[in-house]
Amino acid sequence: QVTVAEPPGVEPGPETPVTPPGTTVDEVFSAAVDRSGNRVVVWAQSPVKGSLLQGEGVFGRYFDASGSAGEVFPIATGPGSGATDPSVSFDGSGGFVVTWLDLAGLGTIEGRLFGADQAPLGPPFPVDEGSENAPVAPEVAVSACGDFVVAWRQAADKQGGEGIFGRSFNSDSAPLADPFRLDDGSAEEISPPSVGTDAAGNR
Q1: CA torsion sign, 158 to 168 to 174 to 137?
Q2: Cβ neighbours of residue 80 under 8 Å, at least 6 residues apart?
Q3: How many Å from the N-terminal Cα to the C-terminal Cα in the chain?
Q4: Quick one: which of 3, 20, 124, 137 could link to 110 by a disulfide (CB 3.0–4.6 Å)?
Q5: Phi-psi region of 130 (alpha: psi -120 to 50; beta: other; left: phi over 0)
Q6: Which is more confidently placed, 7 or 96?
Q7: Three-state DSSP class for 54?
Q8: How far apart are alpha carbons 39 and 85 in whole angstroms?
Q9: Residues 166, 180: contact at Cβ < 8 Å?
Q10: Which residues is 100 bridged to in the sheet?
Q11: Which residues pair with 149 in a beta bridge?
């Protein structure tokens, strides 16, 4: 469900269903709001709850500032796509970036750019470079100019130690650097990452 947030002391509007009736959402979804109050919700769905390797993919739906819903649109789809764990973030002009974990192969992270009209601005692109240690829990944050960074958790060595890694991209989805490690390796347990940007584009 989605609802329009109101100022303190004002009752929020009615809840609006996000997914069509009968959709099985596998408890993996993400939402973002732009500076005008428009929002987009993305989710992974499968025919049977918990069967993402036989899933239908990642989908999204756009809501304007009044709460009016657009049509559901595909992001990463196909029978057995293995796409799950989506994350979404807006840029300053109403476009947005979606990332997700692809379980169909060895486990890689992919992303896709969308315009303010929710139309894709090209095919999916790889985020990480592939590894014998599969990544998990990708999160994306987009700056006002459209540059973005993706962070994820991943086993850092064959002994099973985990680390947090990231990679920066320009507004055309071209990588600005190789993946880099963000933690110092001292923690015994690593939680899934959270990432954001400020007005100057710092992450």
Answers
A1: positive
A2: 53, 54, 55, 104
A3: 30
A4: 124
A5: left
A6: 96
A7: helix
A8: 18
A9: yes
A10: 110
A11: 141, 168
Strands of the chain, DSSP E: 25-33, 39-45, 57-63, 73-77, 83-90, 96-102, 108-114, 125-126, 135-142, 148-155, 162-169, 180-181
Tens of pLDDT, residues 154-165: 876 555 568 899
Q: Are 111 and 174 in contact (CB under 8 A)?
A: no
Smallest Cα–Cα separation from 136: which of 115, 114, 164? 164
Of 125, 151, 154, 127, nearest in space to 140 by CA: 151
From 178, 156, 181, select the one nearest 168 (Cα to Cα): 178
* pLDDT, tens digit, 9 for 90 and up, residues 147-197: 999 999 987 655 556 889 999 999 999 999 999 888 887 777 778 888 888
For residue 89, the tally of other CB atoms under 10 A from its CB is: 23
CB 135 within 8 A of CB 152: yes
Dihedrals φ, ψ of 54, to 5°? -110, 25
